[in-house]
Structures are given as structure tokens and as C-alpha cells.
Amino acid sequence: MGDLRVLVVDDHPLFRIGVGTLLAAEPGIEVVGEAAGGADAVTAAAALRPDVVVMDLHLPDLSGIQATRHIVAANPGTGVLMLTMADESESVFAAMRAGARGYLLKDAEPDEIIRAVQAVARREAIFGPDIANRVLAYFSRPPASEPVFPELTGREREVLALIAAGHSNSLIASTLCLSPKTVRNHISNVFAKLHVADRAEAIVRARDAGLGRS
């Protein structure tokens, strides 16, 4: 099948060259290119068609997450391994949603980086130990209950609940400290989003969902 083709993307030259040298020294891996920015990474990936892109998160112009999204959309066969200092959960999950298959921190051991590149090429998901524990904890949490009528904003649900409780527009306005015009606007939005014709129909829908009950 030939050597595993890798593109290394990082805006710090010493780190980029170091990772490239590390990978190129491993039998079966060929570093086919480097890029210092997100836009250059997208262009290089399109031209070189690497098996794996080793991608930093914080890059000039396009971020690593944006670049990953473009690369995976253009060539789903390319695996992306994030190699970054960013260890926030938000960054990890944003990278996964963008299509990255792996996430390592830059303090990973050299052999860990090599194994991660090889695993991503095999279409496996790979995480550093701390990141893996965080991912497992996230998915082991009980799912958050989805609010009723998710198409409504929080304020619109408050207004609907008060309608279902039998409150008049003026009472809703005083309860929520809103102007009567704002209340009317919220009610119009609720009716439109729930596809109901009038207040009575809205009350039925709301009470069926458990709103407005004492």
C-alpha cells in the first residue's frame, strides 16, 4: 500500500519541523508537506491528498477547526489528528464535530504521536489519556432533558407558560417586567412557531406538554 502520507500543520516552525522530522524517521511514514496556516493547510491537503493531517488548533487565518472542516468535507478519506496545547473540553468537542479523528496535547511522548498518526490512518479514534477520560466522562453523563417546544426561546416559553396558566397580556407584562407591546410580539412569535391559530389552541398545546399547570 506504500508509505503513510502525512501533512504537518503548525505555525511554530521549530515544532512543525520537529514533528515532521520525528514522523519522517519512522519506517512506513512519509511527510509529504508542511503548512503554517489554516488556509495553506486546506490548499496543501487538496493538492497532496495526505492520509493524515497533523493539525494545530490555533493557526493564522483559518483556525485548525475550520481547516479540518474544509479538509474533511473535500476528502473524507483524510484523517485529521489535532496536536495542540488547547485542552479545554470545548476545543476537543469542536474538533470532533469538525471531523477530527484524534486529539493529542503537544506534551505527548514521541512514540504516542507516532501511534496516534498510525491509528488515525486506520480510521480509529485516538485521544491522549487526559482527553480520553474527559470524553468518556462526557458521554457517561445522563442526557440532559430537552426543553419542551425547543423551537421557542426561553422567554417565549415563559410567556407560553403564563398564557397556559390563564394570565392576561397585562398580567404577563407585569410578571415578566415587559412592555405590553413586547408581550404581544412574543405571543405572535409563539403562535407562528407552534402553528396555532389562537390563544385557546396555544393553551391546549402548552398544557398537553405540562406547562401552566399548578
TrEMBL record:
Domain annotation HTH luxR-type: ranges: 145-210
Residues carrying 4-aspartylphosphate: D56
- Pfam families recorded for this chain? GerE, Response_reg
Per its UniProt record, what PROSITE patterns does this chain match? Answer: HTH_LUXR_1, HTH_LUXR_2, RESPONSE_REGULATORY
- Domain Response regulatory, by residue range, is 5-121
Query: Which PANTHER family is this protein grouped with?
Result: TRANSCRIPTIONAL REGULATORY PROTEIN NARL-RELATED (PTHR43214:SF24), TWO-COMPONENT RESPONSE REGULATOR (PTHR43214)
Q: Where are the transmembrane segments?
A: none
Give the top-rank taxon of the lineage listed in the UniProt record for this protein. Bacteria
Q: Which SMART domains match?
A: HTH_LUXR, REC
Keywords, ordered alphabetically: DNA-binding, Phosphoprotein, Transcription, Transcription regulation
What this protein is called in its record is Response regulator
